[in-house]
Design goal:
mainly beta; 91 residues; 3-stranded antiparallel beta sheet; 2 helices
Length: 91
């Protein structure tokens, strides 16, 4: 499970055995509100498979929405955004 920990400006992964791993922290995160994982096929891998040059790889993409709440209540300019981060690839 991937979780947006908004008050701490973190994106974490919680494993089945309840181990917490930080995936993203600080930087452009500004009260991250939600996350979505998208399993897309790589266009170059798709081309390689068409040419018979190997397996097709699936690249997992994480989309994150920034709400910017903490910045706005501190009278700072909030970084309200839709962010995209790679999560690696699978075969």
């Amino acid at each position: 499970m991937i979780v947006a920990v908004n008050k701490l400006n973190k994106i974490v992964k919680v494993s089945m055995d309840k181990k917490i791993t930080t995936l993203e922290s600080g930087g452009v995160l500004d009260f991250p509100a939600s996350v979505k994982i998208d399993n897309n096929s790589s266009s170059t891998a798709g081309q390689q498979q068409k040419q018979g040059q190997g397996e097709q790889h699936h690249h997992r993409i994480l989309y994150i929405t920034n709400f910017g709440f903490l910045s706005s209540i501190k009278h700072l300019v909030p970084n309200v955004a839709l962010l995209k981060a790679g999560l690696g690839s699978t075969n």
